[in-house]
Amino acid sequence: MNNTFLNDVDKGLSNTPKYLLSKYFYDKIGDALFVDIMNMPEYYLTRAEFDIFKNQTQNLIETLKLRKDTFFELIELGAGDGTKTKQLLKALDTANYNFNYVPIDISQNALDQLKSSINSELPNINTTPKQGDYFNVLSSLKQSNHPKVILFLGSNIGNLNDILAQDFLTKLADSLQANDKLCIGLDLIKSEKIVLPAYNDSQGITRRFNLNLLERINKEFDANFDIDTFKHQPEYTEDEGIARSYLVSTKSQTVTIKALNKSFHFMEGERIHTETSRKYNDAILNGFLKKTSLKVIDKLMDSNQYFADYILNK
Ligand code: AVI
């Protein structure tokens, strides 16, 4: 039994207002649903960042100031299936750069698949995956003295609230040495018309992704959430620049979680906050960076200007 998850469920559902942490979306079913989300026409984020990696690869290599005569480590946090990164790896391989690719992910399954696909598509690339939580892996980064380039793509940092994002960037900066680089992919603040459908696709995949969290709790902790009585509710305002997802109880009800030996009451219309997806602009990013030793040196945007990969120097 996964006790951290169970304790987090207890804490979140005992809180007013109720919440559950979005990191628990990603069991095997959640991983597969997220892959489906990335292929939804409304979910522009992945395509926008792929556009940058595919069409501005040389620009990316130049702004990262990579040198052919110096070995470096290319470290990716939350690597997933590596589709975008492979564009960069291919270009580095063709131009004979001397580097080691270190994908880091919480899912060993995702890392195994990534390593085998790189081995067959790009056999010259030295890939040494590391399984773990970003925060735990950050401290182990300090052990090597080679120049480092950290990739943190997909607007994954957007799923951290502002306090955790600040903490993450501060810890990341402390793990790097002078002139190491960071490429961080951020979804940019834009109108509700574009952002909200990305979290409410017409085929209902995001709805299933959100509800899967309750299914997980039912399966893993012997709970009795009636999935049909909870509604997926995403919200976003351009002023704030934060998308939030909720699950709303459509009736007054009590849910029992046997593994906790506890029941939780939901009023009709009561919400569980399940995800935060912050969108960024230069000012918001710089607000976090001013408390760290990282500085923005460049910014690459997709053709629609929906998404940016910021290049930071330590
Ligand atoms: C992984 N993360 C950046 C996604 C996002 O856009 O916040 C997760 C997601 N949630 C719903 N759709 C996608």
From TrEMBL:
Q: Which residues form the Histidine-specific methyltransferase SAM-dependent domain?
A: 7-313
> Where does the source fall among the domains of life?
Bacteria
One Pfam family here: Methyltransf_33
**UniProt KW keywords:** Methyltransferase, Transferase
What PANTHER family does UniProt report for this protein, alphabetically? ERGOTHIONEINE BIOSYNTHESIS PROTEIN 1 (PTHR43397)
Record's protein name: L-histidine N(Alpha)-methyltransferase
